[in-house]
Amino acid sequence: GAVVSQHPSRVICKSGTSVKIECRSLDFQATTMFWYRQFPKKSLMLMATSNEGSKATYEQGVEKDKFLINHASLTLSTLTVTSAHPEDSSFYICSARVTGGYGEAFFGQGTRLTVV
Amino acid sequence: RKEVEQDPGPFNVPEGATVAFNCTYSNSASQSFFWYRQDCRKEPKLLMSVYSSGNEDGRFTAQLNRASQYISLLIRDSKLSDSATYLCVVNPQPDDKIIFGKGTRLHILP
Fold it and tell me: Does pLDDT of B70 surpass 90?
């Protein structure tokens, strides 16, 4: 399958700082990328849908000023967790949908964020 | 009715057995369907796309029933390595957000 690279895979930051997570589609173009978070033994929770060149669409209850999403090109989307707090600690995963395909989406490896 | 619904399991199945998962979806106009698997503390990986004609990949067979709005996944001759959470995924329209089921946990027992 297609490759999506997510970086960093693990980050520990201090409370109050910001963390940027990158999601790149390496061998295909992705007009649409999705950002999820997942708590241990829980289901994926969609945070936002990111479309290249336009503003992201956030799910209900997700603060757009706290989770800044930028999708500047067809191969890169970034998620910035601003002023992180311990309750933001989670597993963040991006996925990229193949443009013009059947609709397959491929996932990055995920970022495990710990806020101390 | 939930958009995508799956039995959460867990399914505890002896090695070598056949196991079947079903998933129902609410939007009759949905276009694309998939099964993903997710291992513990890992990202989901695409297992199979599900087409109207059904498709098979080795021990795995996926079927789509549009009339009844359900998708199935059959795993034959199950292996220990098949233990994972299986996610049913629906893409209503090409530009819509992807809808995930909550997943079915499968444990293959030696």
Answer: yes
Tell me the C-alpha distance between A13 and A29, whole Å: 31
Per-residue CA distances from B91 to A15, A23, B32, B96 (Å): 37, 21, 5, 7
Q: Tokens in use for A45?
A: 């929770």
- Out of A46, A104, A109, whose CB is closest to B43? A109
DSSP class of B17: -
Q: Give chain B positions within 8 Å (CB) of A1.
A: 45-46
Taking a C-beta distance cutoff of 8 angstroms, is the pair B41, B54 a contact? no
Using one digit for the tens of pLDDT, what is the confidence trace for B6-62?
998 899 999 999 999 999 999 999 989 999 999 999 999 999 999 988 899 999 999
pLDDT value of residue A1: 66
> How many angstroms away from the CA of A80 is the closest CA of chain B?
19
pLDDT at A102: 86
Q: What angle do CA A49, A50, A56 make, to 5 degrees?
A: 85
pLDDT (tens digit per residue) in A9-38: 999 999 999 999 999 999 999 989 999 999
- A8: preceding bond cis by omega (within 30 degrees): yes
Q: Residue with structure tokens 């996610």?
A: B87
Interface test with A, best of B2, B43, B91, B105 (most A CBs within 10 A): B43
Question: What is the number of CB-based contacts under 8 A between chain A and chain B?
Answer: 48
CA atoms within 13 A on the CB side of B55: 10
